[in-house]
Amino acid sequence: MKVKLREAGTPTQHEVELGDDLTLYFSYQTCVGFWLSGHGRVVSENVWSNTTAKHLNTWEPDKTRRVKHDEFEKQLEAVLARISLKTEEN
Question: Element (H or E) spanning 67, and its range?
């Protein structure tokens, strides 16, 4: 699997591509969203700082499309489990 890290606008905003099917969006060291082939983009509501809010606006400017943070965590965990990865909390 090809893994690629790229800065996504600022030194504290990054995207990690895991192959062609999954991209994780990071604000600082926290995953705040993802894109999954066949599923689309999922971005958490903002429960962090103003800077992270700016990062979230890059990936999903429509705040009504962002998911509750608990739901985001569940979806992220399920996606990572499919490729045998786990979040830091586990």
Answer: none
In a domain, 45, yes or no: yes
25 domain residue, yes or no: yes
Query: Structural domain of residue 65, as residue ranges?
Result: 3-82
Confidence label for 85 from pLDDT (cuts 50, 70 and 90): low
Number of domains in the chain: 1
- CA dihedral (50, 51, 52, 55) in degrees, to 10, reads 120
pLDDT digits over 16-59, tens only?
A: 999 999 999 999 999 999 999 999 999 999 999 999 999 999 99
- 64 Cβ contact list (under 8 Å, min separation 6): none
How much is the pTM?
0.89
Q: Is residue 33 part of a domain?
A: yes
In whole angstroms, how large is the CA radius of gyration of the chain?
Answer: 12
